[in-house]
Design brief:
Blueprint (H helix, E strand, L loop, with lengths): L7 H7 L4 H6 L1 H8 L15 E5 L2 H14 L7 E4 L12 E6 L6 H12 L3 E6 L2 H10 L3 E3 L10 H14 L7 H18 L9 H9 L3 E7 L3 H15 L4 E5 L17 E6 L6 H18 L4 E3 L8 H20 L8 H14 L1
Parallel strand pairs: 1-2, 1-3, 3-4, 4-5, 6-7, 6-8, 8-9
Bound molecules: fructose -6-phosphate.
Fructose -6-phosphate (F6R) binds next to helix 4.
Length: 352
């Protein structure tokens, strides 16, 4: 059993798959991704809409791309997490498959369907069948480094996905943004890594507050990628059920559910470091109602990252650390995901 979150020897015994090491490298992968060279492909003139398709950790990368870049792209962009494609997907769709393993059944099925519908296709992966199909058919492909579990490759997948979108001319140079965010994340890592003691480490402090609780994560709508990623990381790393909702919408419905004290759930409010006055008012009003209805005390996340991408990936990194510290407190190795493996096996077998 772990003596405390400052017991590094105890942590390394629990963390057999070295998830902490992978999270520590998250900022470095982002800096590396800024050095991907854009590919020489068709121009954006053909593109009327963009679909980013993936599952799980790879879909989280697609969500971050959407939140980061949609204001810079002149056509509609959507994220699809299904083998079935929406009706509008066709020859003027830029369809980018995002799959770390390149072996995910839903992603491969959707990619094949996109090819049948004559979409403009592209893919990002570390290898697998997705890479094989792309190299046989001369489809633009960017390869990220292999050897991680998919959710730990988020920053690489975001970097490669952004450079792929730049290659098609749908967005201008993304590499400065990747570098800026990478440097901000290096600073945030310096405050949260395991060597920083509990007395000064906000990720460890938050993990302690979350022990034995169900985290309910709230973000502004334009940071939904962060909220969903955090929920997934609590599930996959800490093996804890979590949920998320978005503001201001939650102020119009979910806020009612906080009537009366429930010591087993804890709201986690994830702030944007460049919140507008209007957005701060939304948070303040929401918090005031939680206090009034249920005397609920919130847990607040702020990272101070100020670049457009850092404002998303800063809180992602922060909550990644919280999720692994919570796993250690529960005596759980964050890396193995036996449930996902079994689900993938059963699904793939049934499809054959
Ligand atoms: C496991 C993980 C999963 C996978 C998902 C899809 O670490 O994060 O959510 O991301 O099963 O697999 P890939 O990303 O390889 O397409």
């Amino acid at each position: 059993m772990l003596r405390s979150l400052d017991d590094l020897e105890g942590i390394s015994k629990i963390d057999a798959g070295n998830m902490l090491g992978a999270i520590n490298r998250f900022p470095d992968f982002l800096v590396d991704a800024a050095h991907f060279s854009p590919l020489d492909v068709r121009s954006s003139l053909f593109v009327h809409n963009i679909v980013l398709m993936g599952m799980g950790g790879s879909a989280s990368a697609a969500d971050v791309l959407l939140d980061w870049l949609q204001d810079r792209i002149r056509v509609p962009v959507s994220v699809v997490r299904d083998s079935e494609l929406p009706r509008f997907v066709g020859p003027k769709t830029l369809f980018m498959a995002v799959s770390y393993s390149g072996e995910t059944a839903e992603t491969l099925a959707a990619f094949n369907e996109a090819r049948k519908r004559r979409c403009i296709t592209a893919a990002v992966a570390s290898g697998g069948r997705l890479q094989t199909i792309c190299s046989r058919r001369n489809i633009p492909f960017l390869q990220v480094a292999s050897g991680l579990v998919p959710r730990a490759a988020l920053s690489q997948m975001v970097g490669a996905g952004a450079v792929m979108m730049q290659s098609f001319g749908v967005v201008e140079d993304v590499r400065v943004g990747l570098l800026e965010a990478g440097h901000e994340l290096i600073r945030i890592r310096g405050q949260l890594r395991a060597e920083v003691p509990l007395s000064r480490n906000r990720a460890k402090q938050n993990a302690l507050r979350l022990r034995g609780k169900l985290p309910v994560i709230y973000c502004l709508q334009h940071m939904s990628s962060v909220a969903r990623r955090a929920k997934n990381q609590f599930a996959e790393n800490s093996k804890v059920v979590a949920k998320y909702d978005l503001l201001p919408e939650a102020g119009h419905n979910e806020v009612e559910a906080w009537q009366g004290r429930n010591p087993h759930i804890l709201p986690v409010l994830v702030h944007d470091s460049k919140e507008s006055r209007e957005e701060s008012t939304v948070f303040r009003a929401f918090k005031a109602v939680l206090r009034k209805l249920g005397e609920v005390r919130t847990l607040e996340v702020r990272t101070g990252a100020s670049s457009a991408l850092g404002r998303l990936l800063g809180p992602v990194l922060f909550l990644d650390y919280v999720s692994v510290y919570l796993a250690f407190l529960r005596g759980v190795d964050p890396t193995p995901t036996t449930g996902i493996r079994e689900y993938r096996r059963l699904y793939a077998t049934a499809r054959r």
